[in-house]
Every structure is written in C-alpha cells, then in structure tokens.
Amino acid sequence: MCEGCNCNDERLEKIKEVIKECNGDKSQLIHVLNEVQELYGYIPTYVQKVISEELDIPMAEIYGVITFYSRFSLEPKGKYNVSVCLGTACYVKGSQGVLDKVKEILGIDVGQVTKDGKFSIESTRCVGACGLAPVMTVNSDVYGNMDPSKVKEILAKYE
Ligand code: FES
C-alpha cells in the first residue's frame, strides 16, 4: 500500500463503509476513530482527511479529538508497545532510568518503532498504578517495581 494514492487499501474501504453507516452524524467521530485505530494501529493523516471530507468535520477538530484521548495514536506502533510511566510517583522512583534502558536495548527513541516493526516505545503520565511505581507496560501486560536491570529479561519474553 502506498500512502500517496492509497491503492489496494482494503482498510480504507472498510473505514469508508463505517463512515457511510454514520449517515453524516458527526457525533459518531469517536466511533469512526476507534475503528481506524483498531484496523491500522494508529490514525494516519490520509485517513483523517477522508473522515474530514466524508463527515464534514475540520481536520483541526479531528486532530484535537485524537490528541485528547490517549487510546488514539498519530504514529504507528510496534507489535509490542513498551510504555514507561513518567508520572510523579514513578519518576521519583527512577522510571527515567527504566526508560533509558528500554531505549538503549531497542536502539530507538520514544515515539519510534524498531525496523522489524516489533517494538515501539512511548512514555506516559500516571497510569493509575502508583503503588507499583515505577511502572512499565508492554501492551496490556503491567510490570511494577521496575528497575533498569529487569528490562532486558522482560523484553526478551516478547522476542
Ligand atoms: S505515576 Fe506512574 S502509575 Fe502513577
């Protein structure tokens, strides 16, 4: 699939169907974005344009909704998304060191995906598990009481 012309983009066809079912109801925007996130793993700009045209919602408004909800992503994520909490409770217990270790092992920065598409890294604010600080998650798996020395072994489980 090439981003320029979107040829053979079956996912886009599916999204167009979802939009059609909305019958122009702009309040269905989040429903549509959920479908896009589910299908693509993120919300590509060219899909935002299609939604904007079909539902007659300004791009800025769509962007605002995407960035408001943490479940939506503007960047592609790896098969395994590693997230390190930099909220206060985690930060004071050394989560920055955990994040640095993840970056070092995977060889990528926050917001990037490894070349094989397997891992991506993000940093988050409080994920509501402060009692387990510092917290790292890999997709929905939660690892508490983290320490940089534990990172390598945990990531190896997902290799
Ligand atoms: S600050 Fe990290 S879980 Fe609350």
| CATH fold-level name of the largest domain | Glutaredoxin
Strand content: 5-15%
Secondary-structure arrangement, i.e. CATH architecture of the largest domain: 3-Layer(aba) Sandwich
Can you give the helix content as a percent range?
Answer: 40-55%
* Total of DSSP H or I helical runs spanning 4+ residues: 7
Distance between the termini: 27 Å
What is the number of strand segments? 4
Poorly predicted spans: none
Task: Trace the largest sheet across and list its strands.
Answer: 2-1-3-4
How big is the Rg?
18 Å
The secondary structure category is: alpha+beta
Tell me the series of helices and strands, N- to C-terminal: HHHHEHHEEEH
**Quick one: overall form?**
elongated
The CATH class of the largest domain turns out to be: Alpha Beta
The pLDDT mean sits at 92
Protein model, in words:
There is one protein chain. The protein has a four-stranded mixed β-sheet, with helices on one face. A hairpin with a 2-residue loop joins strand 3 and strand 4. About 45% of the residues lie in helices and about 10% in strands. It is of the alpha+beta class. The structure holds FE2/S2 (inorganic) cluster. The site of FE2/S2 (inorganic) cluster (FES) has 12 residues, from helix 5.
